[in-house]
Amino acid sequence: MKKKWIAVVAAIVVAAFLIMAVVPMATNMYASAANDISSKKNQLSSLASQKSKIQSELSAIKNDKSKEMAYKDMLEQEISLTEQEIKTLNGLIADYEGQIAEKQAEIDELQIKLENQIAQFKTRVRVMYEDGESSYLEVLLESTSYFAFLTRMEFVTSIMERDNRLIDEMKATSAQLKAAKAELEASLAETESARAEVLEKQRELEEKSAESQAIIDKLANDEAYLKEQYSIAEKEANQVQAEIDRILAEQKKTQAVKEYVGGVFGWPLPGHTTVSSGFGMRFHPTLKVYKLHTGIDIPAPKGTKIVAANAGTVITSTKNGAYGNYVVIDHGGGRTTLYAHMSSRSVSTGQTVTKGQQVGAVGATGYATGNHLHFEIRINGSLVNPMNYFS
Ligand SMILES: [Zn+2]
Predict the structure, then answer these.
(1) Span 95-101, mean pLDDT?
(2) Cα 286 to averaged position of ligand 1 atoms, centre (Å)
(3) Which of 22, 107, 314, 371 is most exposed, with minimal Cβ within 10 Å?
(4) How is the chain split among helix, strand and coil, in percent rounded to 5?
């Protein structure tokens, strides 16, 4: 699943580089704006599909991440439960330890009392047997009568019996205390083993939680990477779209100029209507060869005003060996007019002119035998006979 999207992103990145490398080349090879636009639109749609792929990978990762976060939350809740359990068990253990210490103190105290009691008893017996007056035997022998003897006998026996009984009672109590203590110790051991189990469970949960956190971190990392890739693709798409908009705007502007300005052509040399040489094949007087005469020649004195045959944009205003000083006007719709051999030019390239506006003056610059205007009309680049295009 993760491998798969890494492969997808790698493919997208490679594709993006190829597009970036190939498109400018294509643009240079096919200068036409239409071609440029269609390649840019292809680029745009490939970017859009990249974006949607990245988007779906992103939502898959977001889904994985939120699931993992829910799982980790559950683990954290369990961990806090084990913490509560451990707290409770610690309390119990402290309680048991306190009770055990209490029992031990009671046992110790009783042991001392018992030892005292035994010592006392031993002393009493020794005194009764060994010490003259109060010895057992003397007590018995000194009795003046059988009755007195019996009474004394009973008295001594009862003291001894009492001592014995006390010792027995103490021993019994001590045994009870010891049993109670042993019970407490068993409970303590049980509680301690329960605590060890909970601690182990907590350790395992914490391990799982750390693993889950590592997964969340990795997914967050992937998410950030994909978001970056998405914004790169988006930025690129915006740039391509801007480029398309720019080309379209340019096309619109060019198309506006390209529409024919309308109307018929006016005579370029007012007041001078004689055509000395028409359009077609002729013997060139200067070059001495048969050649296509590309326009019409209208003789006039040097300096006579030459005017634009129609409104348009000056696309050429220059000088060369053949035409001398010449001007070309684009009237849109693929129609252009050319004015050659001028003594001077009065318009410059890029300038718009109105119908009848002066573009230069008659002269004999370039290959010309005398002062005249050489006038051409081209339609979509092909030369035509100008005489067919005047009103
Ligand atoms: Zn000519």
Answers:
(1) 94
(2) 11
(3) 22
(4) 65, 15, 20
